[in-house]
Specification:
Blueprint lengths: L4 H25 L5 E3 L4 H11 L5 E6 L6 H12 L2 E6 L2 H5 L2 H8 L4 H19 L4 E3 L4 H5 L10 H14 L4 H8 L2 E3 L5 H8 L3 H4 L1 E3 L2 E3 L2 H6 L13 H5 L4 H8 L2 H15 L6 H14 L38
Parallel strand pairs: 1-2, 1-4, 2-3, 4-5
Antiparallel strand pairs: 6-7
Helix pairs in contact: 2-3, 5-6, 5-16, 6-9
């Protein structure tokens, strides 16, 4: 009796999952490091298990609020693997102490970028202070395997085009911040063989359902069936760490009349549109760090319509300096 179409498809998917697992293991083997920045999400949990088999013993997790979702997930991974797990329990003031460093290094006042990056900066600094010379992050898996839910409803052709575009333009703050701290940051998911494999997958291998719940990174989840956090939803760093409450933190500290005055001042004097209190707070740091001469191209061949700073590429629809989207 011939196998059914469904059975044949599942056999093929199982083979692709097995190959993906081999590629991840091989990629990690090319990146021996002293520590892992561990959120307890799917991507860093995979790296923890694979790297632990090669001798990794240290992990660092930053938590900004007591109820941060990463707390229980990162602890579960670290406990199972018996990692030397340093949890940096901080608060808004503590994590915001990294703001001048992140602004200077990344040359941005984009709230979404900074909300995530100051958490990463705190983790990298903790690793550096603990004597580590290198660290691994789970960056790039979301871009390559459709971790972002805004991709999921696109038809297959548009979905594939978006995934390929993201692979071309993806950039991660962990690398320049690590370099600035004297820490070598490695990203196994950016391994060329992994990137090539991911770009060859169909949409159903990246976005699919488990127990009635839709997930991105579907094949990556199938490739590591013994993982504690295999079906954990995608939480950005800001959500997992608790930094996602920073917009409310700044709104409570900058009154509406002050925000309006500053929006007018910055628009009139600098030609920059400030969106809200958090955006203003980060722009003020940007002004303090760089003064009147930021080391960035402004009003060049391809400027952002909201701030005037040059967009990173001709196909970018997002400004990496002010965070405006869409800009085309």
């Amino acid at each position: 009796m011939l196998p059914s179409v469904a059975a044949t498809a599942e056999t093929g998917r199982a083979a692709r999952a097995a190959r993906l697992r081999r590629l991840v293991v091989e990629a990690v083997a090319r990146h021996d490091v002293d520590a892992l920045i561990l959120s307890g999400g799917l991507d860093t949990s995979i790296l923890a298990h694979v790297a632990h088999a090669r001798g990794l013993r240290r992990a660092f997790t930053v938590l900004v609020t007591p109820d941060a979702p990463d707390r229980e997930h990162a602890r579960a991974v670290a406990t199972r693997l018996r990692l030397d797990h340093q949890v940096v329990d901080t608060d808004f003031e503590g994590v915001l102490s990294e703001l001048p460093f992140a602004v200077r290094t990344l040359r941005t006042f984009d709230p979404m970028e900074l909300r995530n990056s100051i958490v990463v900066a705190r983790a990298l600094r903790a690793a550096k202070d603990a004597g580590c010379r290198s660290a691994m992050t789970g960056d790039a898996a979301d871009e390559l395997f459709a971790g972002y839910s805004f991709l999921w409803d696109k038809p297959p052709e548009a979905f594939d085009a978006s995934c390929r575009r993201m692979a071309r333009i993806m950039r991660f703050s962990s690398v320049p911040m690590g370099r600035a701290l004297g820490l070598d940051v490695r990203i196994p998911f950016m391994d060329p063989a992994l990137v090539e494999f991911a770009l060859g997958l169909e949409k159903d291998d990246k976005v699919n359902e488990n127990d009635g719940v839709r997930h991105g990174k579907y094949l990556l989840r199938l490739a590591f069936p013994d993982l504690e956090n295999r079906w954990r939803r995608k939480d950005p760093i800001e959500v997992g760490s608790g930094a996602t409450r920073l917009p409310a933190y700044w709104a409570a500290r900058i009154p509406a009349d002050e925000l309006a005055r500053e929006q007018a001042r910055v628009r009139r004097g600098e030609g920059v549109e400030i969106r809200d209190a958090e955006h203003l707070a980060y722009y003020r740091v940007f002004e303090e760090v760089f003064g009147k001469r930021p080391p960035l191209v402004r009003f060049g061949d391809d400027p952002c319509p909201k701030c005037g700073y040059e967009l990173p590429t001709r196909e970018s629809d997002f400004c990496v300096t002010c965070g405006a989207w869409p800009v085309r």
